[in-house]
Write a structure and sequence with these properties.
By secondary structure, the chain is mostly helical. Helices cover 80% and strands 0% of the residues.
């Protein structure tokens, strides 16, 4: 039976859609995470503070979280294409418009709209990837899809942005990074398929309601523990550029190189650990990720500015394991806990909770800590968040198909 299924599986579509989804999510990361990297270059010009940085990161995450669920829920009813393609167009335009702002209020508004448009790419992207993937490749394909947000947003982005500042201004950088998303929207128009419909004449299956989304215990657990993973990821991403330039006194270009470790490590973690979780299980992979993320984040805080290499590699591994926990929970754990036909809804619910509280509230708290006690103290908050995530993940139920015997 498995051989017959493998032969009939449309692997050509599987690989093409994973490629397009991955590149698009990479551009989401580039547009989203470029702001903290550019912030030291324009904060004085616009009269902004650390608290404003936390609020700018937080408002995007809050609206991302709300939209990830609402638009994911909508796409389970009206189809993927009608929601996903307009979302890609809007977030690309908002990135370009970020270079035209005159102050905090306009930038907050643009970041809020960007969050509304980027959230659906996360939740619907998980659903499209799951629907296109053979069950044995579900974790791996979700890992490929999700790792691109780190590769583009946190690895390539900081290097490109800080080097571009040598030849142009920050407004032009915002404009240039927004344009490629429009090309990906066009590619999606020709490629994205809707989920397969039930066979003609089959008995209609009642669509689950909102309460049914919580039928699997992993859904509320994943929501809670993902808050902790995202708290670590987004506090790190928001505060790291200023920590390196203001506290460790690195140059903008050296800061760009060190911050890129978040992206390179996160990219590998988001690909490798979900793939490994296909074999060792979702629960064990998540627990290992949380534990090692906390250890390497602590070691990073103890390193000084004497060695860029030491800073880079400690941050690399801290991000690798932090992002891997995020990817496992937001991808395969959420998808495998979803009722039939509601993958985008559950993925959006889990991602939404993580974004609103971990990506939204946590950077705002970190901004206040940085403003009142010093930016070097924000990582104590991050480490505590990772420890809490580890404790909650102890109660996850294993759902990996190879571990449960589903394939």
């Amino acid at each position: 039976m498995h051989d017959i299924a493998a032969k009939s599986w449309d692997t050509s579509y599987e690989w093409k859609i994973i490629l397009v989804l991955s590149l698009t999510f990479g551009l989401v990361g580039l547009d989203r995470f470029i702001l903290p990297v550019l912030f030291p270059a324009f904060m004085d010009e616009l009269g902004l503070t650390y608290q404003d940085l936390g609020n700018l990161v937080g408002i995007l995450a809050v609206f991302w979280g709300i939209s990830a669920f609402a638009m994911g829920f909508l796409s389970d009813r009206v189809g993927r294409r009608k929601v996903l393609i307009p979302a890609v167009i809007v977030f690309s335009l908002m990135s370009a418009f970020s270079g035209m702002v005159g102050g905090l209020v306009s930038l907050l508004l643009i970041r809020a709209v960007m969050g509304l448009a980027e959230g659906p790419v996360a939740s619907i992207g998980v659903a499209v990837a799951v629907e296109a993937s053979h069950p044995k490749r579900r974790g791996m394909n979700n890992g490929i899809f999700q790792c691109m947000i780190s590769l583009f947003g946190n690895a390539i982005g900081p290097i490109i942005a800080t080097q571009m500042l040598l030849v142009t201004d920050w407004r032009t950088v915002f404009l240039l990074v927004g344009l490629p998303g429009l090309l990906m929207a066009a590619a999606m128009f020709f490629l994205v398929r809707e989920p397969a419909l039930p066979p003609a004449g089959s008995t209609p299956v009642a669509r689950p309601g909102f309460a049914d989304l919580f039928g699997h215990r992993n859904v509320p657990l994943a929501m809670l523990t993902l808050v902790c993973a995202m708290g670590g990821v987004f506090v790190m991403g928001a505060m790291m550029p200023n920590y390196l330039t203001d506290y460790l006194h690195l140059s903008l270009q050296d800061m760009g190189v060190v911050v890129s470790a978040i992206g390179f490590g996160g990219c590998i973690g988001q690909f490798a650990m979900p793939t490994i979780s296909d074999f060792i299980g979702r629960r064990l992979a998540t627990l290992l990720s949380y534990l090692l993320a906390a250890v390497f984040t602590y070691l990073f805080t103890q390193a000084g500015a004497n060695s860029l290499g030491t800073l880079f590699w400690l941050l690399f591994f801290a991000a690798l394991f932090n992002f891997s926990a995020l990817a496992i929970l937001a991808g395969p754990v959420a998808a495998e806990a979803a009722p039939i036909g509601m993958v985008a809804s559950v993925a959006g619910l889990v991602i939404g909770a993580g974004e609103v509280f971990g990506g939204g509230v946590a950077p705002i708290i970190a901004g206040r800590i940085a403003g009142s006690s010093g930016i070097e103290h924000v990582f104590t908050f991050t480490i505590a968040s990772l420890i809490v995530g580890f404790v909650v993940a102890l109660f996850l139920k294993e759902t990996a198909p190879r571990k449960t015997g589903a394939v």
